[in-house]
Amino acid sequence: MTKEEIFTAFHDIGLVPVVKIDDAEKAVPLAKALIDGGIPCAEITFRTDAAEEAIKKVTKAYPEMLVGAGTVINPKLAEKAVAAGAKFIVSAGFNRETVEWCLSHNIPVVPGVCTPSEIELGLSMGLDVLKFFPAEASGGVGMLKNFAGPFAQVKFMTTGGININNLQDYAKTSNVLAIGGSWMVNADLINNEKWDEITALCEDARLKLQGFKLVHVGINLADEAAAAGAAEEFAKFGMAINNGNSSIFMDKEIELMKKPGLGKNGHLAVRCNDIERAIYFLKDKGFTVNEETVKRDAKGKIKVCYLNEEVGGFAVHLVK
Ligand code: 3PG
């Protein structure tokens, strides 16, 4: 995998479990639990002697899985990790020698930063993906928003104090590439072989990451007169009529189409934090994108698209 492919995978998966493993024999069932939970990715940290063997076993069992090494504090460890099969290198802090070793060996490296000076050091070495660690203790989302001004080109893998309860705040922040953490793979879960629980925690986190929310229901009507008639009826419930070109909105939640649009009955508009990531997530659930409906913003990011599959007679479009 190229560096770009790896960083795109971080973004699309959206979550990077930070693993501390004591027994390498548990690495393969752990990897399976993550894959089953929709997270084919892990940062196995060199905080235990089992890390190297764990990386070896997982890369052998699941060559497609995006497995990297964390807590890599010097070039020697980076070399060891890569020899074991690590596809990327992460560290809690910024070690210039480790970064140089990775760059010269063409290994994607994500060193940890929590200050503007460290970000500038990263940029001076050609890095525009950095780990923001320890995220919560260093100012969390507020700090990331401050970084977005001077360092608009930098994206962060954020870890440290993130869990299912504050994950949404990070998921909504535009310069967050992916969210890392140990909450879905903590040492107790691994040591007690709670594989089903790990899978469930991953599924839960992945769904929460999307931030899906129904924003409006579009109802197909035969023509403008039918839409106006329906508007009069909905207005009896106190909803405000907002007349547009192709439809009439009742407040913001109901859209009355002036001629039948996509969907047998109409459409559902579902908001999410990141459409590209949501598409990746929904692919696993059997949905595909209707390419003809994709609209992009100035940066090329999708701002709206329909899915090909209908739900209960309604087409679904995603919106940010
Ligand atoms: C890391 O190295 O990224 C952290 O140990 C993960 O932080 P967490 O344990 O608070 O999730």
Characterization of the model:
Helix content is 36%, strand content 25%. It starts with a helix and ends with a strand. The chain is elongated and about 75 Å long. The chain contains twelve helices and 17 strands. It is α/β, with parallel strands linked by helices and 320 residues long. Bound molecules: 3-phosphoglyceric acid (3PG). 3-phosphoglyceric acid is lined by residues 18, 70, 92, 133, 159-162, 180-183.
Q: How many β-strand runs?
A: 17
Arithmetic mean pLDDT: 97
Q: Sum up the overall morphology in one term.
A: elongated
Strand content: 25-35%
How are the elements arranged and paired?
Layout (H helix, E strand, L loop, with lengths): L2 H11 L1 E5 L7 H10 L4 E5 L5 H11 L4 E5 L4 H10 L4 E2 L5 H9 L4 E2 L1 E2 L2 H9 L4 E4 L7 H9 L6 E4 L8 H5 L4 E6 L5 H5 L3 H16 L2 E8 L3 H12 L5 E3 L3 E4 L3 E4 L8 E6 L3 H9 L5 E8 L5 E6 L6 E6 L1
This protein binds 3-phosphoglyceric acid.
3-phosphoglyceric acid binds next to β9.
